[in-house]
Amino acid sequence: MGDTDIKIEKTISGDTISDILRKLAEEFENGEAFEERFVPVEALDFEKLKLEFKRKNGQTRFKMKLKPLTVIADGDTLASESSVVSEAKPRYKSLKKRMKKDYKLIFNTIQDGSIPPKDVVESFISDSLLMITYPGYGDEFYDQYAESVREFQRSYDQGLVSEMRAAIEKVDKVKSISHNKYK
Asked: What is the mean pLDDT of the segment spanning 146-154?
């Protein structure tokens, strides 16, 4: 969570979890305090809300984390910067999973002497170029990987399976060296 996030922690002895949830629901629904205010008024418009209840020694520990919406000058709301980045850029693990599937299809198709489907190749190349923007996952191999992917793209554009095979093997070699070091 970021700098503007709101964190509330309380130890509650008398209230049940359902009472607390009803109070929170009332506050969010009406924007008005119900007995003791749990949520600051400025946080009623939020992007992310996380509630946690823990019971220990007859007491309940209540934690709430809120990520408020960012308000821009003209009054429109905008999701926080971190969520905008995450929407524009998939999680690294998700990206790698998608790339693995595309790569396997491309590699096997070329090894069988055929030209892989254009949409799969375009997706793989696009994802490859996106992947190398993630820091900390083999940065020292990114330039070499990008060059091997560009070489593969050139051979694909020419439609020569023998050149595609040589190029995809270079991609595979760089990928293997990086994975051996970082996996």
From this structure: 94
So where are the chain's domains?
A: 6-88, 92-178
**Residues 84 and 19: beta-carbon distance below 8 Å:** no
Question: Are the C-beta atoms of 46 and 83 separated by less than 8 Å?
Answer: no
Which single residue is written with the structure tokens 């694909």? 156
Do residues 99 and 127 lie in contact, with contact meaning Cβ atoms separated by under 8 Å?
Answer: yes
Q: How far apart are CA 116 and CA 105, in angstroms?
A: 7
> What is the rounded distance in angstroms from the CA atom of residue 121 to the CA atom of residue 102?
7
What the block records as the tokens of 178 is 């990086």
The yes/no answer on whether domain 92-178 falls in CATH 1.10.10 is: no
Residue 162: C-alpha distances to residues 110, 132, 146, 151, 166 (Å): 8, 26, 20, 13, 6
Count Cβ atoms within 10 A of the Cβ of residue 131 and give its class: 0-12 exposed, 13-18 middle, 19 or more buried: buried
pLDDT > 70: percent of the chain: 72
Pairing, β 46-56 against β 59-68: antiparallel
Is 139:107 a contact under the CB 8 Å cutoff? no
pTM passes above 0.85: no
